Amino acid sequence: MENSPLFWAGFVVFVLAMLLLDLLVLNRKAHVVRMREALGWSAFWIALSLSFNYLVYRTMGHQAGLEFLTGYLIEKSLSVDNLFVFLLIFSYFKVPPQYQHKILFWGIIGALVLRAAFILAGAALLAKFHFLLYLLGAFLVYTGVKMAISANDPEIDPESNPIVKFLGRHLPITNRIDGPEFFLRRNGVLFATPLFVVLVMVETTDVVFAADSIPAILAVSRDTFIVFTSNVFALLGLRAMYFALAGLMRLFHYLHYGLSLILVFIGGKLLLSEYVHIPMGVALGTVGVILFGSVLLSVLFPKTEKPLQ
User: What pTM did the predictor assign?
Assistant: First the structure.
């Protein structure tokens, strides 16, 4: 394989084929995604990701295989924060469950395009300016600390979103959800629906989270193919994971701190790379232990609800 243009093209064709299969065949009609269906698709995407990981290991070597798995695990775990915010957005706008899959589908397509641009730009800058590695490490440590001390329950305020403000000023928007469409034409006038506003919120939220996750994976691997494919597989399974974990995400209250610790660890690994070499296997094990420990603590010590005043 050796990171050839042919394999890049083959991977992109594969991703497009899976997205078309999802849109035109499996989810052509809007429906409520049940737990059993979501768990089945989650298992499918995880199995497919691990199969690709094995392909990377066999064709690109042991180190590349570990880098892909570590990047995939980091991106997958950081996605949990995305899912929680998506849940808040859907609740705020009262999006019916049968339309949530469509929003997530188009949101992920937009995320794939934006992240590809971020990855290519970031990898090119790191290759040209070595000192950026230390800035990247410091940024990850700062982000991890900020995540740890911030509130676990982010507020959703569409009125403060600059892109939503721009849409409100320049585009007529209907005041209620009436069907699965993003746009409606009434009396010759094109209106955006609240579902389009939700889609914009999902996209801009992902851009914010990409500012954390892309640097974290670039800190693990400088190979753009490894970084991009691990991101893609994590994103492709994001919708299924959302519907599988929608009712459980609030239970994993210590995961937030686990994710912050992972960012601090990866950032510290970069800052000390000139003096201390941490093998990729050790880094992967550390990330896995932190994730498992934070989930276990969440189960053993459930969050107590504050009594009503």
Answer: 0.76
